[in-house]
Structures are given as structure tokens and as C-alpha cells.
Design a protein that fits this description.
The protein contains 8 helices and 8 strands, in the order βαβαβαβαββαβαβαα. The chain is α/β, with parallel strands linked by helices. Strand 7, helix 6 and strand 8 form a beta-alpha-beta unit. The structure holds D-xylitol-5-phosphate and zinc ion.
């Protein structure tokens, strides 16, 4: 069954602790937390201080998405703050391997993300060192953008590459995910749907999440993305 990771970027920022408890009650599998530095992406959001403050509110895994330059410098702070999964962008460092090692040595799961126009080949060398591949389906920086359909093919190719190396890696898709795009991503091979605006603006988040969890997975689907 596909996992659902609501993005706290779309939550009420003045009541983040309660919002975290709400997503957990509604059946979320992970809490997706977007960290932006105003350099790698145009926007600035929150840092380790807020992640640490949120930790006591819920036991749900924190899926921390770092959209920051020089990630190695900040890994210890995000580990200490209580992150369960820390994802960095392949575009942000010359030494991806060392950052992934520092995440795993610190006891968290390591994720690697790539922007919509970054080729899949850039992440292939790291498939044996990651737990999560986060496929961006919008340009990172803001919630509420429109899904890029070309990312479906990337998800399908990533899924195939992961199967070929026999690795256990979650494939999450992030950006513009709603009922329609989420269903297509699940069928293409995504195992986690990350979504902000569609879930937080849903009439009933619990019903919405339950519906998404029923989306057919790649194994139940025969579409081709070639
Ligand atoms: C965008 C973030 C996303 C964002 C998704 O840079 O990484 O996690 O919250 O928002 P929606 O689901 O509204 O596109
Ligand atoms: Zn994100």
C-alpha cells in the first residue's frame, strides 16, 4: 500500500504542533518537513529549531527534505533535532556520498532528491547508499504548483533501476500531487506520495488519505511510460 506524507508546508504555520497531530490522526505515514534556505531555492521556511520543537508532539516519522546548499554542515543539527529520514538534493553538493554517510552514521535514513530537470542518471551511483529517492515533480521552493507530467517516466525508470539493483528504496514524489496525479504516480512506481496543498485543503483529510491509500501500485498496473 502506498504511503502518504503530508507536507507541513501547507499546514497552519502558527499551529504546527496541532497540525502534526492532526495529520497523524488522519492516517499519515510520515510528516514531510520542508527546509528551504533562500539560496538553493528562492523561499525560506523553517530550520532545525522548529523540527526539534515539533518532535514531542508525535511519534510519526519525520521526513525532512533539505533544500539547502552545503548540507553536510547542517546534518548533525537535523539528526539531533529528531529527524528520521533526511533527504538532500543531488544538485547541492560535490560529495553526495559523504553527506549520505553522515546521515546514516547518525542513525537516520538517507534520502536523495533530484529536481524535475535533473537527469535520473545523477542519482543512479548512490542507489546502494540510500533509503529514499525523492523525485521532485515541480521546481522546489513553493507549495501549490502544477505537476510536471514528464516526471511519471522518471518515476517508472527509477523504479526499474531500483528493481534491477535489488535495493529496498522508497520512491517518493513531491510537488503538485493530488487525486489524479497521485494515482498516476502510484501506478508508475512511486511508493510514497508527498502532498501539501491537496491534503490540507481537502474537505476531510482523513477520507482523502484513505482514498489515496487505495491507489493501485505499479504491481497492479500495466501502463507503459516509455
Ligand atoms: C516544494 C516542497 C513540497 C511542497 C509540495 O518545494 O518540496 O514538499 O510542500 O506542495 P504541493 O503538494 O502543494 O505541491
Ligand atoms: Zn518537499
Amino acid at each position: 500500500m502506498i504511503k502518504i506524507a503530508p507536507s507541513m508546508l501547507s499546514a497552519d504555520a502558527a499551529r504546527l504542533g496541532e497540525e502534526l497531530q492532526r495529520i497523524e490522526r488522519c492516517g499519515a505515514d510520515w510528516a514531510h518537513i520542508d527546509v528551504m534556505d533562500g539560496v538553493f531555492v528562492p523561499n525560506i521556511t523553517i530550520g532545525q529549531h522548529v523540527v526539534r520543537a515539533l518532535r514531542p508532539y508525535s511519534k510519526i516519522p519525520f521526513d525532512v527534505h533539505l533544500m539547502i546548499v552545503n548540507p553536510i554542515k547542517h546534518i548533525p543539527a537535523f539528526l539531533e533535532a529528531g529527524s528520521d529520514i533526511i533527504t538532500i538534493h543531488v544538485e547541492t553538493t560535490e560529495d553526495v556520498a559523504s553527506v549520505l554517510t553522515s546521515i546514516k552514521d547518525g542513525g537516520a535514513k538517507a534520502g536523495l532528491s533530484l529536481n524535475p530537470y535533473t537527469p535520473l542518471e545523477t542519482v543512479i551511483p548512490y542507489l546502494d547508499s540510500i533509503d529514499l529517492l525523492l523525485v521532485m515533480s515541480v521546481q522546489p521552493g513553493f507549495g501549490g504548483q502544477k505537476f510536471f507530467p514528464h516526471c511519471l517516466k522518471k518515476i517508472a525508470e527509477a523504479s526499474k533501476a531500483i528493481d534491477e539493483v535489488g535495493a529496498h528504496i522508497e520512491i517518493s514524489v513531491d510537488g503538485g500531487i493530488n487525486r489524479e496525479t497521485g494515482k498516476r504516480c502510484s501506478a508508475a512506481g512511486a511508493t510514497v506520495l508527498t502532498a501539501g496543498s491537496a491534503l490540507f485543503s481537502a474537505k476531510d483529510m482523513e477520507t482523502e488519505i484513505r482514498m489515496w491509500k487505495g491507489f493501485p501500485t505499479k504491481e497492479e498496473n500495466n501502463e507503459s511510460y516509455g
